[in-house]
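User: I'm writing a short report section on ligand binding and want a predicted complex to refer to. Could you take this sequence and NAP and write out the structure as tokens? A short remark afterwards would be nice.
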Amino acid sequence: MIIKNVCVLGGSGFVGTYVVSQLVEKGYKVRVLTRKRERSKDLIVLPTVEVVEANIHDERVLNKQFEGMDAVINLVGILHERNCHSSRVDKPQARRGDFHENHVELPRKIVHACAINQVPRLLHMSALGAEPTADSGYLRSKGIGEHLVREAGLPDSKHENWYLNGPKFIRGQGMAVTIFRPSVIFGRGDSFVSKFAGLIKSFPILPLAGAGAKFQPVFVEDVANAFVSSLNNLETFGKTYELCGPKVYTLKEIMELVMDITGKKRSIIPLCPRLSYVQALILENLPGKMMTRDNLLSMQVDNVCGCDFPAVFGGKPAAMEAILPSYLGGENPRERYMDLRENAGR
Ligand SMILES: NC(=O)c1ccc[n+]([C@@H]2O[C@H](COP(=O)([O-])OP(=O)(O)OC[C@H]3O[C@@H](n4cnc5c(N)ncnc54)[C@H](OP(=O)(O)O)[C@@H]3O)[C@@H](O)[C@H]2O)c1
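Assistant: Sure. The structure tokens for the complex follow:
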């Protein structure tokens, strides 16, 4: 199978921008579907990229946009719902919020539209820790979506698709599916590390929820390379890959690394579970939703891989120590001047 035309959903986001750039470098023709074309200015200027404004939740739109495509890459995901009512009491089958719409219903529609258009290849972005039974609504919905996509690529599956009224006819279509489960992703433009860098810059003391939560952050270029290099690689068909960097850190250790790199020493106060909950409850109700109770639930499970970075994608994954200075230490001269003034108390 030689893939040339690739449709990317979520291509305007942090990871998507890197995936699309690497696709272009490798000579693919790319169609990016987005809700707001004007927000994708960086992509519009790339050669061989067509940015289409579309409502991807409308199955008729997907059917039309997937016509003639050799592969579809789904990167759509959200970390917060508009109304943060996720809690462990929610039943997986009962919830029909934003997580369900984007992580379950959308993959279902994508699989369906791929089948109708006989798109032979589908790459799907899940997340490390995603499980249909997870306490966190984010991880639970990602887990259900991931399972649904995997089923679509398994013609001989004996498993019942018990949690959806799912489109069973999709089974047996022979679509080659590859699923990716990264830990938290870092790189220029990320929200995770950059958010902490912003906090460190703004506050002298940092009360930290989930300080002991473990992560194995992976570089965005390594994630993008895994997607792009798997497209035409038969060895990756039907496989699920966990993607992690070379080192495990607690959240507190990530904060300390960011402090070292930015040269700003701050006091970190790890919060107990009860105070962590209160902090998340407050933050999820503030603009920007810095943290939600659902994020806290997801941090109760270690976000680490039990294996090395998949050899099939070649090379070793990059370490945070090697990459963070390139975008956290690179403030412009005026910002450095303001920091010097602040440190001097003027
Ligand atoms: N970043 C991480 O650390 C991390 C770790 C593990 C897994 N992931 C997964 O990786 C994927 C990409 O993450 P990211 O960090 O690149 O996210 P991002 O920057 O927030 O981008 C998400 C993309 O999803 C689309 N999107 C968001 N809400 C949507 C909605 N309601 N309807 C339609 N499209 C919507 C957006 O497209 P438009 O705005 O153009 O429509 C955007 O391009 C997600 O599936 C995420 O769960 C990320």
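A remark for your report: The pocket of NAP is lined by residues 10, 12-16, 34-35, 56, 75-78, 102, 125, 127, 182, 184-185, 192 (CB under 6 Å). The longest helix spans residues 98-117.
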